[in-house]
Amino acid sequence: xxxxxxxxxxxxxxxxxxxxxxxxxxFALPLGFASYFxxxxxxxxxxxxxxxxxxxxxxxxxxxxEGVANAxxxxxxxxxxxxxxxxxxxxIFLSLFxxxxxxxxxxxxxxxxxTPEIGLTIPLIMTVILVSxxxxxxxxxxxxxxxxxxxxxxxxxxxxVLGAAFVGCTVYEYSHLIHEGFVFGTNAKSTAFYSITGxxxxxxxxxxxxxxxxxxxxxxxxxxxxxxxxxxxxxHFVDVIWFFVVSQxxxx
Length: 252
Known about the structure:
Elements: E1 2-4, E2 7-9, H1 17-38, H2 42-69, H3 78-106, H4 121-145, H5 149-179, H6 188-219, H7 225-250
Antiparallel strand pairs: 1-2
Helix pairs in contact: 1-2, 3-6, 3-7, 4-5, 4-7, 5-6, 6-7
């Protein structure tokens, strides 16, 4: 809204980038996954992913750039909507945990036959990595508040390295378990294990994508404090959820 001659003038803000991102999601997920898993056509799935993924990247990058460029114009509703989004994500995690609890409590023998020994070393390392990443991101926020853009970028990069290491640990653990024949459909334990840990890993990956959206304009000396704060809240949420994942899936 703009003020002039004693009245408030309303105007619309519009962007094509959300439409581009949605188109990318449509190509990459429904069409790509259906082509591969339903119709067994890997070539068609590759084509759809090749179209969808770049569109998603363009859409998210462009939309973020517009938000950073126009951050001074209107406050927006990002910090109001983010807690609502986090609550909705919490409900999804809760439904997955509820399913796991039902399986765990109604099965006479747990873990079911065919479940290999799942060590605790890797999840403990992953816990240290993810907790550390929350502290490093907070350190970056403090640097930004103090006007130290260089320090902010350094701590942000450290946080991203830690997040990537967490995802790498997940991939390593998955490859080890799959090599032992423990796949998604092996038994009830495997279904719950891959569903919950995979869903959490996807959130960590999304968080890394958000950090990239923060980092790219920061490298050019531009920053949206709302985006930085929102990214931090989301990352801390993912960190807290991990404590439930590791305690339920690995230690119970």
